[in-house]
Amino acid sequence: TKAASARKAPVTAKALQGKIIQHLRGTQGTYEEKATPQAWWRATSFAVNEFVMAGLTDTQKTHSRYDTRAVNYLSMEFLMGRLLSNNLHNLHLFDVTRAALEGLGQNLDDLLEEEPDMALGNGGLGRLAACFLDSLATMNLPAVGYGIHYEHGLFEQHFRDGRQIERPDAWREYGNPWEVCRPESAQQVKLYGYVETRYEGATPKKVWHAGRTIKAVPWDIPIVGYDGANVNILRLWESRATNFFDWDVFNAGGYVDAQAEQAQAETISKVLYPNDETDAGKELRLIQQYFFCAASVADIVRRYRRAHGDDWTSFPKLVAIQLNDTHPAIAIPELMRVLIDDYDMAWKDAWGICQQVFSYTNHTLLPEALEKWTVRLFEKVLPRHLDIIYDINHQFLTQQVDAQWPGDDAMKQHLSIIEEGHERMVRMGHLSVVGSHKVNGVAQVHSDLVRTDLFPEFHELWPEKLTNVTNGITPRRWLKACNPRLAALIDQHIDADWPLHLDKLKGLIAKADDAKFQQAFMAVKRENKVDLVAEIHRLTGIEVSPDALFDVQIKRLHEYKRQHLNLLHILALYRRLLDNPEYNMVPRVFLFGAKAAPGYHLAKDIIFAINKVAERINNDSRIGGKLKVVMLPNYRVSLAEKMIPAADVSEQISTAGKEASGTGNMKLALNGALTIGTLDGANIEIAEEAGADHCFIFGLTVDEVKALNARGYNPYDFYDHDEEIRAVLDWLDSDYFTPGQPGALASIKHSLLQGGDPYKVLADFRAYSDAQRNVDEKYRDGTAWARSAIINTATMGKFNSDRSIQDYVDRIWHLKAYPRDN
Ligand code: 26W
User: Fold this and answer.
1) Are 586 and 724 part of one and the same domain?
2) What is the domain-level CATH number for residue 569?
3) Residue 432 lies in a domain
4) Could you give the CA distance from residue 153 to residue 412 in angstroms, rounded to a whole number?
5) Catalytic residue among 363, 511, 636, 778, which?
6) Range with the lowest mean pLDDT among 235-249, 561-575, 609-623, 658-672?
7) pLDDT of residue 2
8) Same domain, 730 and 600
9) Would the CB of 325 count as within 6 Å of ligand 1?
10) Is 786 inside a domain boundary?
């Protein structure tokens, strides 16, 4: 076993120093004595970019030489985080760069902190896309990520008197060293206008006269595979005004109006919608979706035609398009439009191609997240696409549905892409299922529910279409790069290629009972906690002890994720401690990280409540420091990378049936945290892998939640009969945590009682509290805890995103790997 990094550095520290200095002087226009940390970070990134670009060129040559089949991953979100550390690790340049910088009087860790996160996503779905790109490149699979080059990614979160304040994110205010603009590949995207029917030949021809044309300019971000693998690209589209349409206005003295048009065009890629799991139905959002899908489909077609001209027979052999949720579903009618209107293909042939090319991943069952657009809006923005959707729907209902359920009008209404009602709607989920050859959920239980509850009739119609691909995470970022101490310890005990073959972590099971290994493992955890303690202090001024148990809940703020269940339990502990200062518990730090959608008032109130409760508890000398609560501001990928290695407990407490998969659960367990969780999403598979003894599973199951709903759930049953529940809810309603402002936290109790407690917080409270007792007891037994922590790390191999990608390849994409020639 050898450290891979020592084996493979492709450059000496000395040569690298030369490159860094050259960029500092030659591209940054500064010099060693004067350069800011920003300038050093940039110069280092540009130096590394030389290696990245060489890999990119080789990969592209290889792909064109072999005319490779590729997957095109269409996603509104790519939550990339920072790239320098990741690229250094994947290129085996990390240690040599550290040494090179040291010689220049610079510290690599400090420079890494200069990089703004590329936060072009909300949460799980966006981060999944980023992990998948890492795996695709690492596995030498031809792939292009397509998305939007947002000027502003997810908002920056601040707290003012405990309340969330949003500020715009400006990740590329001063340019970004990783992206390359490709003006030569710009595309035109049409919008609005009307459709003319021309009766010339045998079949009438539809002509779309667009009202506006927008330019889509691509920015390419190289995606570096691990260990000398391929470098793929992430292509992000920026909207610009087309530079020919406004000259008349301009010359007629309409300079200001021309600017307004330009501003309008540029609005499209201006900002990421910060809603996670609620469809706001906004016109600009539909335009964003169409904008990037149209540009991407045009780019895919251009790449194909460069090699094959007008011969479309190979198209489905070379092109796979994956829809990351329904957000890019408009790509289906767009490809139909291009094939039929621009290339005169017969409807049947075009549809055959679409169904072979597209596949769709479902990420949620929450009804409020299932996208629907009014027919009225479609007619206005995309009139030709509405026509095409009607045609698709007509064929589908009269051929397929009628054949399966002859004369069944109720079934037709149920399966129709168009929802009838007082306002007619286009159902994007139905469009995605009908237009795809495969549809997958993201964890086993979720895929089962997609089949039985969300799309049961589609499942009956096409029993082979609905399938499962359990999510995964890249071990390069989420263990090797973010937890160097644990990675180094692992390197000492198993083959150093575990970042490629994560199942090899199983080799650590044999060490789980070894006292020395336990000690080393927990020493790493403790050092990581010491680092996080410093970071917590830097960010909040709060002092916590690294000897306490670190209990971590990090994810978007949502009722179904039940941060308020965690909060109620914290209140119960606080109350027990006040009642009895001798109350026996291991000192615990409850850590939160969460952004709330700006319009989601209850979620913002929960953040406020956590901050107010934290303030009171952290300053209460009566409880002897046994309890601390910290909500770190501005949770994002780079903060997750600091919190996860220091976590002892991973909170995964969603209402069963609501969390499609979760991926934070995988990251935390991989880094040796023990899960306290419900039987929901990937928790089930995590518990299967780790073993029930090494997790704390509690609460209602999916079937029990259904049964409870069927017999009628009444949260007052718990409020009235459980003294502790009643006490903590009433406490929240007093002014104890918000002096002088009684009722400031009332919305939470209100939602849990009068609101009916839709996410069964009160029903699960007692089971959760009992499970937390078990956590406490186990933590006192240091050996038992260390053993479980090790077993968690050792058994997470399944959740390597390389495995997820291999599942997509085997079941859906059928790609071949092409290591680059060089
Ligand atoms: C229309 C608004 C909207 C925006 C984003 C609706 C839904 C979304 C996403 C689907 C939300 C999301 O990120 N879902 C998460 O996807 C992860 C990756 O599969 C899963 O692990 C999470 O369980 C799921 O909540």
Assistant:
1) yes
2) 3.40.50.2000
3) no
4) 41
5) 363
6) 235-249
7) 40
8) yes
9) yes
10) yes
Q: Are residues 498 and 358 in the same domain?
A: no
Q: For residue 809, which amino acid is it?
A: V
Helix (H) or strand (E) holding 85: helix 84-90
Q: Which is the closest atom of ligand 1 to the Cα of 442?
A: 19
> Which residue range is the domain that position 590 belongs to?
475-799
Helix (H/G/I), strand (E/B), else coil: 57: helix
Q: Is the CB of 77 under 6 A from ligand 1?
A: no
Strand order of the β-sheet with 627-631 is 627-631, 588-593, 549-554, 649-652, 674-677, 696-697
Q: Ligand 1 pocket test: pick from 277, 360, 808 the residue with the most ligand atoms within 8 Å of its Cβ.
A: 277
Q: Say if residue 335 is in the same domain as residue 211.
A: yes
pLDDT in tens, 247-264: 565 666 667 777 777 888
pLDDT at 546: 98
| 3-state DSSP of 174-239 | CCCCCCEECHHHCEEEEECCEEEEECCCCCCEEEEECCEEEEEEEEEEEEECCCCCCEEEEEEEEE
Domain closes at, from 357, 374, 391: 374
Q: Are residues 363 and 500 in the same domain?
A: no
Instruction: Please tell me the predicted confidence (pLDDT) of residue 9.
Output: 85
Number of structural domains found in the chain: 2
Tell me, yes or no, whether 169 and 300 share the same domain.
yes
* Summary mean pLDDT of the chain: 96
pLDDT (0 to 100) of residue 262: 82
The partner residues of 629 in beta bridges, in order of sequence, read 590
511 — pLDDT class (breaks 50, 70, 90): very high
pLDDT band for position 700 (cuts 50, 70, 90): very high
Q: What is the position in ligand 1's atom list of the atom closest to the CA of 660? A: 23
Whether 363 is catalytic is yes
- How remote is the CA of residue 345 from the centroid of ligand 1, in Å? 36
Alpha carbon nearest to ligand 1 atom 12, residue? 125
Instruction: Give the model's pLDDT for residue 4.
Output: 47
* Residue 546 falls inside a structural domain: yes
| 739 part of a folded domain | yes
Residue 368 and residue 486 in one domain: no
756-806 residue pLDDT tens: 999 999 999 999 999 999 999 999 999 999 999 999 999 999 999 999 999
Q: Is 477 helix (H, G, I), strand (E, B) or coil?
A: helix
Q: Which atom of ligand 1 is nearest to the CA of 127?
A: 18
